[in-house]
Amino acid sequence: MQPAQSQKPVEAGQSFWERLGQSYGILKVRNFRYLFLSNVSLNFAMWFQSIGLGWLVYQLTGSAAHMGAITATQGLTLLVTSPFAGVLSDRMHRRTLLMITTAVNAAQALSLATLVATGYGQLWELYVFAVIGGMANSVTQPVRQAFVYDAVGREAVARAVPVNNLAQSGTRVLGPALAGIVVGFMSTSSAFYIQGVLALLAMGLTSLIGATHQVKTTAVRESPFKTLTQGMSYVAGERSLRGQVIVQIIPALLVYPYVQFLAFFAAQLHGGPQTYGFLATGAGYGGVMGLFILTTIGEVKHKGRVLLLSVTMYPVSVALFTLAPNFPVAMLFLIINGFCNAFYTAMQNTLFLLSAREDMRGRVMGLYSMIQGLGPIGQLAMGFAISRWGPSEAVRGFEILAIVLLLTSALTLKSVRDA
76, 220, 250, 257: most buried by Cβ count inside 10 Å? Predict the structure, then answer.
């Protein structure tokens, strides 16, 4: 096992290039490097799935309500199973869990691709695949988050999280555009075939990860339900974690769901699947910019205040996006959106990992993923609202409510401000 703690921290007096070299030097840690590459491959796969599935539902139904219902089905599955996935993450070797769930993702994608290519793809089948995908992701997400800590150790985790998040934001720059081009010039089934191949590549990269810093819980002899309730009680009893959970719920329900309906905004701008794909890259550009700044400046002081500021600006940027009169202006606000989201998620991930006790980390990250499962529930509500009032008016109403709730949280949650 290669220790990451021996690397020097990024210091205030260093030059830009010295900061940059030390920040990205975390990739020299073998386990983290393979985890990062595996995450890149899997995130590309997820974008091919998201664009392919979004356009398939749009073609089959043209209904925002159906689109929201399918993603809500996946989210409900994620919501129910994520806490138990956190228990598994504390009991089993996380590399083994990742291998299994990534294999399920690959099988799901290749099966869906075959059904669509042969003309047997139907709407009800998409709901079945949503359940399967939700179960696989409920394990994958918390395990990959907790694995960052395992790969580098406590002292390097604040530097590793922004670099690891680049796997998500970086692929968001190219992934949606490439997927849109594939769907537009080839076929929807091709996007799912590519998703399957990328998932298999991620599984191969995961298999190269060696021994890590993981500490298994001593609760392996207890029932899963008891282990789960212990984790829930632990989070509820920690003021900082409890406050972070409250803050996370608001954007998960009210802000992020807009991403699933970008196809409708593309149509408003008189575009097709290519426009849809390029709109989805906007937040990715902003995310890369934000994470590049984070990794360059090194350790961030007052993480809680940075979190609250960036998460409040997140819905502001989406509200402005709904007012965009043309494609360039829409892209500008999406870039700002991605920038704010990059700061928010990096601070959130870091605080969750650092605040969690060693034997509770898997369960804490399972709760983190469970809250992300609320997003599709918000998509269901947003889908019905769009069907009634149109995309711009409906999404803007959701964002105004989110801004009010986040400002209230910033004023009342001292434990988060001081984190």
Answer: 257
Structure tokens, 110 = 């290749």
How many CB atoms lie under 10 A from the CB of residue 145? 22
Residue 194 near residue 16, CB atoms below 8 Å? no
217-245 pLDDT, tens digit per residue, is: 544 555 556 666 767 777 777 788 888 88
pTM > 0.70: no
- In Å, the largest CA–CA distance within the chain is 62
Tokens of 253: 């329900």
Instruction: Find out whether 198 and 45 touch, Cβ atoms under 8 Å.
Output: yes
CA end-to-end span of the chain: 31
pLDDT tens track for 277-304: 778 778 878 888 888 888 777 677 788 8
Looking at residue 211, what DSSP letter applies? -
CA atoms within 13 A on the CB side of 211: 3
> What is the rounded average pLDDT of the residues 3-12?
47
Two structure tokens written together for 155: 């002292």
Backbone torsions φ then ψ of 185, nearest 5 degrees:
-105, -15
How many whole angstroms separate alpha carbon 261 and alpha carbon 274? 15
Give the span between the Cα atoms of 356 and 361, in whole angstroms.
5
CA–CA distance from 160 to each of 84, 195, 204 (Å)?
Answer: 26, 26, 22
155 CA to centre of own chain: 24
What domains lie within the chain, and their CATH numbers? 30-208+219-417 (1.20.1250.20)
Tokens 């091709």 sit on residue: 190
Per-residue pLDDT, 9: 47
